[in-house]
Amino acid sequence: MRQYVHFALTSRHISAAEITARLMVEPDEISVRGSRVAAPATPACHAWTVVCRQPGLSVSEQLAQIVDRLRPYHDQIVSLSETLADQDPEYGGATLELVHYLDDGDSEGEAPSSAAARSQETADHDPLLSWARDREVLEFLLATNLSIDLDVYS
């Protein structure tokens, strides 16, 4: 199983470079609106992203690493998230994405029913899939008025 967590600030109008300049924090990744397809713009918005893909950590631990990294910039992030959302309610603001890949591709040649059974077993018993957060992390996330996206792939 593979998984990762990312926190992003997004906007159709303010570039990731400008977000970096305002926060004075380097992102791990950026997206540029329309960099893949001009019309319709794909991606639909600019994104400034901090991500944790460290293997062996639960999403709770990955999220804690991200929040610990961003905590010193809490006030700036909250303010900018509000500004981005006010300017562009459809695409602007903060997002948290939690992504799980239950079948990480190690089962090449495996019968589909065995792969599905193994994925279900992973989902039923793997402590890495659990997500429990302490109040401090939740308060940080809530202050940014973010949306949460949880993706599970098998």
Describe this structure in words.
- It is a single chain.
- With 154 residues, the chain is of the alpha+beta class.
- It is built from five helices and five strands, in the order βαββααβααβ.
- It has helices spanning 16-23, 59-70, 74-87, 112-125, 135-143, and strands at residues 2-11, 29-31, 46-52, 93-101, 147-153.
- A five-stranded mixed beta sheet has the order 2-3-1-4-5.
- The radius of gyration is 17 Å and the shape is globular.
- The N and C termini lie close together (9 Å).
- Residues 107-125 have low confidence and may be disordered.
What layout of secondary structure does this protein have?
Blueprint: E1 2-11, H1 16-23, E2 29-31, E3 46-52, H2 59-70, H3 74-87, E4 93-101, H4 112-125, H5 135-143, E5 147-153
Quick tags:
5 helices, alpha+beta, 5 strands, single chain, 154 residues, globular, five-stranded mixed β-sheet
| Proportion of residues in β-strands | 15-25%
The Cα radius of gyration reads 17 Å
Distance between the termini: 9 Å
Number of DSSP helical runs: 5
* Element-by-element helix/strand order: EHEEHHEHHE
Helix content: 25-40%
What is the number of strand segments?
5
Read across the widest sheet, the strand sequence of neighbours is 2-3-1-4-5
C-alpha geometry: globular
Going by helix content, strand content and strand pairing, the class is alpha+beta
The stretches of 5 or more residues where confidence is low (pLDDT under 50) are: 107-125
Largest sheet properties:
5 strands, mixed
Mean pLDDT level: 85
